[in-house]
Design a protein that fits this description.
Blueprint: E1 7-8, E2 14-19, E3 34-39, E4 44-49, H1 50-53, E5 66-72, E6 75-81, E7 95-97, E8 111-117, E9 122-127, H2 129-132, H3 136-160, E10 162-170, E11 173-178, E12 182-187, E13 202-208, E14 211-217, H4 218-221, E15 234-240, E16 243-249, E17 251-259, H5 282-286
Parallel strand pairs: 1-9, 4-6, 14-16
Antiparallel strand pairs: 2-5, 3-4, 5-6, 7-8, 8-9, 10-11, 10-17, 12-15, 13-14, 15-16
């Protein structure tokens, strides 16, 4: 339905019919017929207004509006209509071409056929999706869609070229680890249980939600000067070869997205020998230290 008139689209041209969501993202500098874009099952769907395409008065969207998702040559576009009434199966004998005189000889008029129901008392205009997509407004809308898709592709490529890291400090220096390597970050408890005959850099163990967590002082592990406990220190929890281990750091600063072009391997001369049994090396941290720019 549009402005009290009935229109129809052949069922084979329709992918689905959905409700209008609460959030529609505006597209700057788009044609007036383009309402915006929405997220429909993890895909971006551009929306156009059939009212605006047909030069009908604008009307605020409400719960009666529906989005008819059309497909043409693999391109999905949502068309907003006032309402959807029913699905009809009618014989071809009730469908006639629209006289060309009505559209002043236009060969590509959006209304291609008329369906005569109730012995001609009810007329339903059948929209040609192919012709609808060939109108100037839809060409402009498709251009906007192409720009959106190209922008999304660029964003995806950019994300693939970035590394998301958690930045922390040790002795006034900044280090980072990939965010997927960090299980969680917790406060340093007042007391840790000492375990005899362990390396000096192992501070002890703590009870983390019913699990015994070995805790390593990263300052000691890197042979840096010691530091008294304070409120800024945190334990970063990692899973290394299936073993959960906590590292005490001076502070956790932020989560950053860094271009992979800024990340370099550490010179081998700076990398210390791997220490058993936790297989923790300086390279784990230094290899992704943020390049200052």
């Amino acid at each position: 339905m549009l402005e009290g008139e009935e229109y129809a689209i052949r069922i084979e041209d329709i992918q689905e019919i959905v409700q209008v969501p609460e959030k529609i993202v505006n597209v700057p500098h788009a044609d007036s017929s383009v309402i915006g874009i929405i997220n429909l099952r993890e895909r971006t769907l551009p929306l156009t207004s059939l009212r605006k395409i047909f030069n009908l008065p604008d009307k605020p969207l409400d719960e009666t509006n529906r989005i008819v998702v059309l497909n043409l040559n693999g391109v999905s576009i949502g068309v907003v209509v006032d309402s959807v009434r029913e699905v009809l199966r009618v014989p071809d004998s009730l469908i006639e071409p629209v006289p060309s005189l009505i559209f002043q000889g236009q060969e590509k008029a959006e209304i291609a056929e008329i369906c005569k129901l109730d012995q001609g008392r009810r007329l339903v205009s059948i929209i040609s999706v192919e012709r609808l997509f060939e109108t100037q407004k839809f060409k402009e809308a498709k251009a906007v869609i192409k720009d959106i898709e190209e922008k999304e592709e660029r964003e995806q490529l950019k994300e693939m070229e970035e590394e998301q890291v958690v930045v922390f400090t040790l002795d006034r220096e900044e280090y980072a680890v990939p965010i997927e390597a960090v299980q969680e970050i917790v406060r340093v408890p007042d007391e840790l249980t000492y375990v005899p005959k362990t390396p000096e850099f192992i501070e002890g163990v703590i009870n983390l939600r019913g699990n015994v967590l070995p805790v390593i002082d990263l300052r000691k592990r890197f042979e840096l000067p010691g530091k008294q406990r304070d409120e800024q220190q945190r334990i970063k929890v990692f899973v290394l070869d299936g073993v959960t281990v906590g590292f005490i750091v001076d502070s956790v600063k932020e989560v950053l997205k860094i271009s992979k072009s800024f990340i370099h391997d550490s010179p081998r001369t700076l990398v210390k020998r791997i220490v058993s049994p936790y297989k923790i090396s300086l390279q784990t941290f230094a290899s992704i230290r943020i390049k200052q720019t």
